[in-house]
Amino acid sequence: MTSIADLYPTGTVTLREVGLRDGLQLVKRFPSTGAKTAWLMQEHAAGVRHFEVGSFLPASRMPQFADVRELIEETSRLGAFSSALALNERGAKDACDTRVDEIINVISATEEHSQANMRRSRAEAVELVRRSKALSQGAAHKPLVNAGIAMAFGCSIAGEVAPDEVLRLAEACLEAGADAIGVADTVGFAGPRQVAAVTEALVKLCGEVPVLVHLHDTRGMSIVNAAAAIDAGARALDGSLGGLGGCPFAPGATGNAVFEDLVFLCETMGIRTGIDLTALIEVRDILAREMPEEELHGALARSGPPPHVKWAA
Amino acid sequence: MTSIADLYPTGTVTLREVGLRDGLQLVKRFPSTGAKTAWLMQEHAAGVRHFEVGSFLPASRMPQFADVRELIEETSRLGAFSSALALNERGAKDACDTRVDEIINVISATEEHSQANMRRSRAEAVELVRRSKALSQGAAHKPLVNAGIAMAFGCSIAGEVAPDEVLRLAEACLEAGADAIGVADTVGFAGPRQVAAVTEALVKLCGEVPVLVHLHDTRGMSIVNAAAAIDAGARALDGSLGGLGGCPFAPGATGNAVFEDLVFLCETMGIRTGIDLTALIEVRDILAREMPEEELHGALARSGPPPHVKWAA
Fold first, then answer.
1. Three-state SS for B24?
2. DSSP alpha helices (H): ranges in B108-190?
3. From start to end of A97-163, where are the E strands?
């Protein structure tokens, strides 16, 4: 049984590798379970401790996540933390039968996106949080429940999203028992002022409950938005190695915040990540080999860390 | 005769296109004067008002800047502002015979880099600022003198650079008559905390004299560093279309801050740039045609602005 203090320690910023889930959402070719395991193990050896490893969906719909249970086991064996998506009650039930540390439920910030993308209302999505929490309490490993609000900074369908709407949904998720609240700039609309304002208000609302910020680099703002989120009190940030993961609403656009660039940002801000950047960058070879069609992004992989900086090792 | 209030108005952030100078420093093929003029004119039509157009060096050494005088004339004809580098007294004299609005002198932050790169001491570089100012006062068009401190956030030779050293040099440049002070992250070592601290201290030291920040994206931090500089009171930021311009000390690395991404950042921060982002992005076609070997960077060119944002035009 994992506690919030284990998963998201206070006084630092946890960086979560989401490449194995969000990164694989749109790729043309799926890495083998062996390659995913090597990716996990090598990143773990480089110092990464928190992985989003897949989604509990029928393998017929999302074959790239058919091995989610094996990856949860592997993460657990390493002594690292795993999160996995559960988008319906069946998924939450299945997740509760594993040793996953965290179930992620997704709530759209707008009713339009919720209906179009998930064919359910936002209220129903909040009810899944409540149900996931109840299932978790009856489970052996008692995974934490993370409520992630998608399109929290702007919606591909509805356009602008009022911060008050995000806060209202977050409050409903807290009331339903969420252990952590996430906000996602799913389509890369946000700038640093908006991220700061929403994160600050959420941190105030959530009190002891950690706030996680999930950023995409669609418009090149993921790093500046990450800094704004950190300054506003976010406890965790998501990223993927090489920025793997596109955007279904902006074809050809860049994907998740680049994990290795987030590490560098944190280190320049005085946050010790414990991650060996050189070793981390080497893991990109696995992605390049397994998914040669995918463009990998990121500046650190091209430049390396500044030579005069004494790096974690 | 151009005033500081024209060139760097208070209450906003001026974005300067440096692609025609810094961007062309390392390229394998040089655009024709006609192509450069088209680049200038199209960016001007998109709303860009300030261009660094070249360097006053013997054309035998830097053939890509042989047409600097024509570009200064062209910029002036458009009613826009031009800056040009002058790295020695001969260059400053030549600049004073033109209608250039601003002469840029460069001072290395470290003695090691000054000697290795320019074969002169930092004190001699400061003296060139004094000499440039005297020459300007005797010239018809009286260009402003900008003292740009290179390697201000870390040096490719000496490693870490103490902020006090940068402040001491800035003070010497002010005493020598500089009308504006620039600081450059020449090799992309900086993070937002350092940029904020140095910029804030400089703005305090410089009083009415504008502080300019020149950022490279070598390690992916140019946008977050730009936001930090803006928040700390910088009056101007440099960037180049498509991030054109590499780094002589980090082969293969990305170059200048991407101009179009800086525009988007500013707009998200409530700074009205007056630049039509869609029209700006179209100018990249000229660069791609004239310099097919050069990789163009930037997220906005891939994604476009968010569809729901009402854009300047």
1. helix
2. 111-118, 122-137, 163-175
3. 102-108, 144-150
Residues of B in contact with A226 (CB under 8 A): 224
**Tens-binned pLDDT, residue by residue, of chain A (313 aa):** 889 999 999 999 999 999 999 999 989 899 999 999 999 999 999 999 999 999 998 888 899 999 999 999 999 999 999 999 999 999 999 999 999 999 999 999 999 999 999 999 999 999 999 999 999 999 999 999 999 999 999 999 999 999 999 999 999 999 999 999 999 999 999 999 999 999 999 999 999 999 999 999 999 999 999 999 999 999 999 999 999 997 666 666 779 999 999 999 999 999 999 999 999 999 999 999 999 999 999 999 999 888 876 654 4
Q: Which two tokens stand for residue B116?
A: 């290795």
Q: A298 is written with which tokens?
A: 């990121």
Q: Residues of B with CB below 8 A from A303's CB?
A: 188, 218-219, 247, 250, 252-254
Active site residue A266: no
* Residue written as token pair 């990223």: A239
| Segment A100-123, tens digit of pLDDT | 999 999 999 999 999 999 999 999
Round to whole Å and give the CA distance between A190 and B128: 44
DSSP bridge partners of B17: B51, B239
Structural domains of chain B in order of their starting residue, each with its CATH number: 4-303 (3.20.20.70)
Question: What distance in Å separates the CA atoms of residue A93 and residue B306, rounded to the nearest whole number?
Answer: 38
Site of tokens 């609309």: A189
**Through-space distance between the first and last CA atoms of chain B, rounded to whole angstroms:** 29
In 3-state terms, what secondary structure has residue B154?
strand
Strand partners, B239: B17
Q: Please give the residue of chain A at the shortest CA–CA distance from B305.
A: A219
Q: d(Cα A126, Cα B39) in Å, to the nearest integer? A: 52
Q: Could you identify the residue written with the tokens 């600049």?
A: B95
- Write out pLDDT tens, residues B31-73: 999 999 999 999 999 999 999 999 998 888 899 999 999 999 9
Phi, psi of B244 (to 5 degrees): -55, 140
Q: Which residue of A has its CA nearest to B298?
A: A220
User: What are residue A2's phi and psi, to 5 degrees?
Assistant: -100, 140
Confidence (pLDDT) at A28: 87
Q: Cα separation of B70 and B79, whole Å?
A: 14
Planar angle of CA A154, A158, A162, nearest 5 degrees: 50
Q: What is the pTM of this model?
A: 0.96
Give the CA count within 13 Å in the CB-facing half-sphere of B173: 32
What Cα–Cα distance (Å) separates residue A109 from each residue in A16, A112, A132, A215?
22, 9, 19, 15
Minimal Cα–Cα distance from A223 to chain B, Å? 6
CA distance A207 to A147: 15
| Per annotation, catalytic residue among A96, A155, A247, A266 | A247
